[in-house]
Design brief:
The protein is an alpha/beta fold and 285 residues long. It has 2 domains: 190 residues, Rossmann fold (3-Layer(aba) Sandwich), CATH 3.40.50; 66 residues, RNA polymerase II/Efflux pump adaptor protein, barrel-sandwich hybrid domain (OB fold (Dihydrolipoamide Acetyltransferase, E2P)). It has 6 helices and 19 strands. A hairpin with a 2-residue loop joins strand 15 and strand 16. It is globular, with a radius of gyration of 19 Å. The model has no long low-confidence stretch (mean pLDDT 91).
Length: 285
């Protein structure tokens, strides 16, 4: 999707390119906002086929038709965004690019479930995803990420629902869907995303300890091999419905969160005259 002229100067900086953040990034790209993603050197992205974090490992990726590319610096990021219309991904865990890019919108999509270094005032609009971050203090708006009727709701004062650490229920399955590290160590995968597995089958190892599927189904997400993990880290998940095509589609939750992000940007942007200034600048050009 090409950057739309009216949004040409409304840069969005997203910290974190995991599944939920990538759902929002894809919609931002569709809307025409130039968007840059900052990632870790070794991101723990489970649903890699629908995460722009995959660019860190593969160099390039595509999330439902939207291309992404690992870039070296902001100059290359600007070029890729404006000329190709894709999503540039930059390894910058400390967020140093924030001061240089000076984005109109900063989105904290790292899903840390606790306050990190995001604060109001770092950009004209600051948005955060998920629990642990307070709207009105850490961010201008927080997007609810808890499954249920409030998923994707925009919170302008207060916090999202606290994290329980328990996966959402899907057709009666909850924690059984998750693949977790039995010990701390280096994860090695024995399967790929999209493979069918049976309950009890070895999906991979953490050092020499096997990681077994608890239910039969399709591997919907799986960490990249060679990553160091802590005990209990989520390594992947199994979808018992057995639809391999779902592995390449963003989830309903990610789509709901994306809608919330767009709502927050347009609500706050209109209140603060962001789009009026962008329209004037576009007209002047």
């Amino acid at each position: 999707m090409a950057v739309r002229e009216i949004f040409k100067d409304i840069w969005v900086l997203v910290r974190g390119g995991g599944e939920l953040a990538s759902g929002a990034i894809r919609r931002l790209n569709w809307a025409g906002f130039p968007t840059v993603v900052l990632e870790l050197e070794k991101p723990l992205a489970v649903r890699r086929l629908v995460s722009f974090a995959q660019c860190v490992f593969a160099g390039e990726c595509e999330v439902e038709g939207v291309p992404g590319k690992l870039v070296r610096d902001l100059a290359e990021a600007r070029s890729y965004s404006m000329e190709v219309g894709g999503v540039p991904v930059l390894i910058d865990p400390e967020g140093r690019s924030l001061q240089e890019l000076k984005p109109a919108v900063l989105i904290d999509g790292r899903m840390a479930k606790r306050p990190l270094d995001t604060r109001i005032g770092q950009a004209p609009i600051v948005i955060a995803l998920g629990p642990g971050i307070e709207a009105g203090f850490h961010a201008d708006a927080v997007i609810e990420t808890k499954d249920g009727p409030q998923d994707g709701r925009v919170i302008y004062r207060g916090r999202a629902v606290e994290d329980t650490g328990v996966p959402c229920k899907s057709y009666g399955y909850r924690e059984e869907r998750a693949l977790r590290a039995p010990i701390a160590g280096v994860f090695r995968a024995a399967h790929e995303i999209g493979d069918k597995v049976q309950a009890g089958e070895v999906v991979g190892w953490v050092d020499d300890e096997p990681v077994r599927a608890k239910i039969s189904g399709v591997i919907r997400g799986l960490l990249y091999s060679g990553l160091e993990v802590e005990e209990g880290t989520k390594l992947g998940d199994v979808d018992h419905r057995g639809e391999a095509s779902d592995c390449c589609r963003t989830s309903e939750k990610a789509d709901s969160v994306a809608c919330g992000v767009l709502e927050a940007i347009f609500t706050l942007g209109l209140e603060r005259g962001l789009f009026a200034r962008a329209a004037l600048a576009s007209h002047a050009r």
